[in-house]
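Cross-posted from the bioinformatics board.
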Amino acid sequence: EVQLVESGGGLVKPGGSLTLSCGVSGFTFTTYAMNWVRQAPGKGLEWVSYISSSSSFIHYADSVRGRFTISRDNTKNSLLLQMNSLRDEDTGIYYCARDFSSSWRPSMLDYWGRGILVTVSS
Amino acid sequence: EIVLTQSPGTLSLSPGERATLSCRANQSIKSGYLAWYQHIPGQAPRLLIYGASTRATGIPDRFSGGGSGTDFTLTISRLEPEDFAVYYCQQYGTSPRLTFGGGTKVEIK
């Protein structure tokens, strides 16, 4: 069974930093690209970032470029999102999601975690 | 950037009724690279449809997708109690950035 479990969320002050992790099981992590998607309170889904299976291709939403860094540790079946210079508008639930295809850019997302809450507030 | 507009914002229907959800893009989506997701708050979103009309693994055949170019639809032929949720469309046809529609909430009437 494919499973994705996010961790590392919590309360952080504006300007602070936080690192999210996503542990996966039930599939060969090294052959799949991965994504982060978020949902602000009362809002819809917003794509955040993509990383290819070998980390050769990485993409970010304009809203987080320069502040967030996606990475993966294929030896630990783990996806990471380092978030710096956090703003109030970064508050929300963050989901990791597996990418359906193996390409240089994101496509459809076939498995998702349940998400982890990040709250940016003073 | 491709902007996706979903309508209606909320659909109030009874179990057994048919639901038709719309997703309109501000420019043509290449090769029908359009997906639909179901999201029940507190749960993981679920991929329903990709390539505009192909059901994902394990998705019941009461869910169907259609459309091309700029206009796409998701149809649920007969609503089951577990189908009341929020539905999102998402494009992956152009640039290396994904965009989602604003969502349609299907609620029990």
